[in-house]
Amino acid sequence: MVDTIVFVICAVICLTGAIGVIAARxxxxxxxxxxxxxxxxxxxxxxxxxxxxxxxxxIVYAGAIVVLFLFVIMLLGVDVATDxxxxxxxxxxxxxxxxxxxxxxxxxxxxxNVDTTRTGVQSQGGVIDNVTPNVDLLAESLFDQYVYAFExxxxxxVVAVIGAVVLSRRHPPLDTDSAEASN
Amino acid sequence: MQATGFDAWAVSLVVFLPxxxxxxxxxxxxxxxxxxxxxxxxxxxxxxxxxxYILVQFDYDNTSELQFLVDKSWIDVINSxxxxxxxxxxxPMLILSLVVVPLCIVYSWQHIPEPGNPKAFLMLILVLAxxxxxxxxxxxLILFFVFFEIVLLPMYFMIGVWGGPERKYASxxxxxxxxxxxxxxxxxFLALFFVAEDPSGTALNTFDMRALSQWAGAGLSLTTAVVIxxxxxxxxxxxxxxxxxxxxxxxxxxxxxxxxxxxLAAVLLKLGTYGFIRIALPILPRAAEQWAPWIGLLAVxxxxxxxxxxxxxxDMKRLIAFSSVAHMGYVMLGISTLTTLGINAAVFGMVxxxxxxxxxxxxxxxxxxxxxxxxxxRLGGLLKAAPRMGWILGFATMASLGLPxxxxxxxxxxxxxxAYQPAPALSEELFRVYMVIAALGTVLAAGYxxxxxxxxxxxxxxxxxxxxxxxxxxxxxxxxWTPFLLAILAFGVYPNLIFSLTDDTVGNIVSAxxx
Amino acid sequence: MELAMLAFERPAIDWHAFAPExxxxxxxxxxxxxxxxxxxxxxxxxxxxxxxxxxATLVPVLTLAVDGADRSMFDGAFVVDDMALTLKxxxxxxxxxxxxxxxxxxRDGDYHENEYYSLLLASLLGMVLxxxxxxxxxxxxxLELLSIPAYMLAAWRKGGATSxxxxxxxxxxxxxxxxxxxxxxxxxFGVSGSTQFDAIRVALDTxxxxxxMVTLGILFVLVGFGFKVSAVPxxxxxxxxxxxxxxxITAFLAVAAKAAGFVALLQLVFVAFSGRYxxxxxxxxxxxxLTMTVGNLMALRQTNIVRMLAYSGVxxxxxxxxxxxxxxxxxxxxxxxxxxxxxxxAFMNLGAFAVVLAVAKKTRSGxxxxxxxxxxxxxxxAVAMTVxxxxxxxxxxxxxxxxxxxxxxxxxxASSVQGTVLAVVVAFxxxxxxxxxxxxxxxxxxxxxxxxxxxxxxxxxxxxxxLGLTVLATLAFGVFPQLAARFGDFSASFAL
Lengths: 183, 515, 496
Prior knowledge:
- The structure holds 3 protein chains of 3 kinds.
- By secondary structure, chain A is an all-alpha fold.
- In chain A, 13% of the residues are buried.
- Chain A is built from 7 helices and no strands.
- A two-stranded antiparallel sheet of chain B has the order 1-2.
- In chain B, helix 9 (222-239) runs antiparallel to helix 11 (258-283), helix 13 packs antiparallel against helix 14 (340-371) and helix 13 packs antiparallel against helix 18.
- Chain B is globular and about 80 Å long.
- Chain C has 20 helices and 2 strands.
- In chain C, strands 1-2 form a two-stranded antiparallel ribbon.
- Chain C is globular and about 70 Å long.
- The interface between A and C is large, with 48 and 56 residues.
C-alpha cells in the first residue's frame, strides 16, 4: 500500500517535471524541471531498495550534470526565452496529435488488458538478499557479467570527448605552419 | 547421360565464346575499330563452328533426348545447377541464334549507326549472343532466368544509344515491360521449387527442368497450378509479346538500330515462345489446359489486331513490327492448341518468323540508310532505283505473307490447321472459331504486305528521290542476307528439316495432353 | 561483512575471441596518440594506418574462422560464431573501402583529418562488437559506440550548413530512437529478468501472462531499430543526412551503419524474440511493404544522385526487411536471404558511391543530369556505374539478383498467403526501382555531355582500387552466387 502511494506521488513528480522541461520557455526553468524529474526517479530507486543507485542519481545527475547544464546555459547567455519557430510543415501538429492518440490508445489497451503484469522481477545480475550490500552487488555485476559493456563505455566516452572537441574547435587549420605558429 | 571429352565443352563454347570475345575487346583500345570488328566476328563464328559441330555430332535418332549434357554444381545453397544440353527443340533455335549474330556483325561492318563507337556496339551484340544462346540450352530454371535477363541490358543500351529520336522512351518501355514479366516469372519458378514433390510426397526442391517436367504438376491443386502458370505466362507472354502486352514492341522496333531490330525479331521474341514450350507446358500441363483457351483468344486478337495495326501504319519499320505481333499470334495459337501439329508448327513459325522478319528489317534498315526515311508515302519505285534490293524485299514479303514454298507458310498453315482439332481437353468449337479468325488474318496479311510492297517497290521513284542515286545491295549486305534468303527457301521447300528435329520432343510434351 | 563473500573471481576471458576488437581498439588508440604527438605532421600517414589497421583486424577474424570453434563469454553476452565472424569481416571490408573513398576527399577538403580516421575506426569497433553481442546491454553500448562517432562524422563538413543540419538531425533522430529502444528493452528486461538473449527467449516463451507487456517491449525495440535502418515511416532523416554528410561518410552510413542495424535485428528477432513471431512477423510485413514502396516512389522524384541513392537505400532496406516477415515460417531461408543481401548490398552500394565521388571531382555537382554523356568521356566509370545500377536493380549478371532471388525464396518458402503477397509486392517494387536506376543509365549513355565538355575524369589510385574491388565483387557474386550465399548459410548459428 505504502509502495503504491509512494509510486503514484513520484510518478506525478517525474511526469510533471518531464512535461515542464519541454513546456518551460526559459531554459533555466527547463533545467530545474529536469532536476525535479531526476529526484523523483531517485525516490523510486529507494522504494526499490536500490539505495546506492538513488545516491548516485542525486549526486551525479541532479548534482553534477544539471549544474553543468546550467553553466552552459548561463555562459552561452541563452537564459532568455527564444521564440522557436514551429509549425512550418502543414498539418504536422494535427498528424502528431493523431499519432499520439493512437499510440496512447495502444499503450492503454495493453495496460488495461494485462491482469498480472510482472515487471520488476529481480535481476539475475544482482539478486538482493539483504545481506550483501548494494554496492558490492553492483560492483560484482559491473566487473563480472557486464565488464565487457562497462569497458566499452569508457571507449565510448573517450570517443565522444574527442569528437566534441574537434567539432567545437573553431577553425580547421588551413595551413600547417601558420596554424602551429599561431599556437 | 553426361557428355564427355570435347562434347562436354561444345555447348559451353557456344554460350561463352561470344562473351570471351567481348572481354578481349574490353582490353583493346576503342580506336582500333577494325580489330574490334574482327574479334567480334571471329568469336561469333567460333561459337557458330561449335554449333555446327553439335549439328554434325547430334544423334538424330534420339532427338528427344538431351545431348551434349553438362550438369555441374552452381549455387548449392538453393540447389540450382549448371545444366546445359541440346535436344530437338533447342537445336533449331540455337542454330538460328548462332547464324543471326555473325551475319549481324557482318552487316555492321559498314553500318555502325550513329553515334558510332563500334567497340561498345559489337560488345553488346556479343553479350546478347551469350544471353540468347544460353537461354536455349539451359535446363535449370535459375540458369534459364539468368540468361533470359542477361539480354535485357545490352538490348536496352542498343536501342537507347544507337536508336532513333524516341530512343530513350522506347528503350525504357522495353525494359520495364520485360522486367515486370520476368519478376513474376521468377516468382513462379521459385514457387515450383517449393511445391514440386515426388510421388512419395517428399519435396523435390529442385530447379532442374527435367525433373520438374517429369513431375508435371502431379498432386498440385489446380488453383495453385493456374496461379503459378499465370506468373510464367506474364514472363513469357510479355516477351513474345502477346496482345495486351505488345505495346513495347512497335516502339522498340521502330527506334532500334537495324541490327537491334533484326536480333530482337529473329531471336529475342522467341525466348518467350520457347519458354512456353520448354517450361510452362511440360511442367504444368493441367494449368496449361485451363489457360489454353485464353492464350488462344489473345493469340487471335493479336493476329487481327496486328494486321489492322499494319494497315494503319505509315512507317515501314513500324509496319513490320506490327506484322511481328500478328505472326507471333500464329505461333501462340499453335502452342495453345496443345497438339503435336500445333506446337511443331509453332517451333517452325518461330524459326521462319526469325528469318523472314530478320531480312525485312535488314532491308528496311538499308532503305532507311539510302533514303533517310521509312515513310511509305515518300518511298516508291525501289525496283527501279535498286532492283536487286527491290526483289529481295519482294521475296521477303512473299515469304512473310505465307506463300507456299517459302518458310512462312509452314509456320502459319499447320497452326491454323491444328486449331481445327485441338487437344481433347479443349473446346473444339471455340478453337474452330479461332481457326476461322486466324484464317481471316492470313488474308489481311496478304493485304497489308502486298500493299506495302506495291507502295514502296512498284512505280516510279517519288519526285523527291527521282534524282537521287540509290546504291543497290553492296557486298556486305549480300554476305549478310544470302544465308537468310537461302534458308527461307530451303525450309519452305523441305520443311521436314525442322519438323523431323522437333517432332519427338514435341510429342513427349503433348503426351501429357492426351494428344 | 566477511571478505570471503566479496571474493571476486575474474570472469574467464578468451583473448583469441576478443582479438579482432582488441586489434581494432589498439589501432584506434595508436591513431589518436599519433595525432596528439605529431599533430598535423601525421596527416599523410593517417589513412594508410587506418587501412592497414583494418586489414590487420581481419587477420584474427580469419584465424578464428579457420579455428571454427564457437566461443562464448560473459554468460553468453559475447559470442563468436560463423555468423559473427562473417559479419565482422563484412564490416571491416566495408570500412576498408570507406577509408579508400575518404583519402582524397578528406585530404582535399577542409577537414580535420586525423580525428576523422580515429572516429571511423571507433564506429567500426562498435559494428564489430554488435556482431558478437547477445545481450541487451552489450548490444546497446555497441550500438551507441557505432552511432556517436557517426553523428559527429556526419557533421564533419563544419563549414557547410547542410552538413551541420545532417549531423544535428542524425543525432536527434538517433537519440530519439535509442530512447524508444531503451524503453522497450527495459520492459523486456522487466518481464524476463535477464538481459541475455537466450534467457529472454526462454522467459518469453513461458511468460504468457504478461504477453501484452512483452508485445509492447518488442515493438518499441523494433521501432528503435526501424530508425537505425531507416525503415518507413522512420526514414525521414536519411535523405537530408545523406545529402549533407561528406560523401564517404554517406557511403559509410548507407552501408555499414545500416548493416549494423540489420545485424542487431537478426540477433534480436531470431534469438531473443524467437518465441514471439506472432508479433514480429506482421510488424515487419507492414514495415517492409511500406519501406520499399515509399522508398521507391520517393526515389523516382529525386534529381540529386545522393538523395536518389539515399531513397534507393531505403527501398533496398525494405527488401532486406521482407524476410523478417516470414521469420518464423521460414527461419533458415530468411536468415540466409538477409545476410546474403547485406553482403552484396555493401559492395554494390559502396561502388555506386565510389563512382559518385569520382565524378563529383570533375563535375562538382550531385545532380543526376551532370552524368550526361559520362560514357563518352569516362567509359570506365560509366561501365562501373552501370554494373552497380544493374546490381541494385537486380539484373543478372550483376550481383543484386542473387540477393533478390533469396528474398523471394524465403518469402515463398513460408508457403503462406502473407509471404506470397509480400513476394509479389517485392516483385512490383523491383520493377519500379529500375525506372530510377535507368535515369542514371540514360544520362550516362544516351545524353550528350553538357557544354560538350569531354575532358577526362582523373581518378586517383585509391578510388580506382575501391572501384576495382567493388566491381569485381559485384560481378563475382552475380556469376558465382555460391560465393556470397554460402556466407549466409547459418542455420547452425541459430539452431535453437
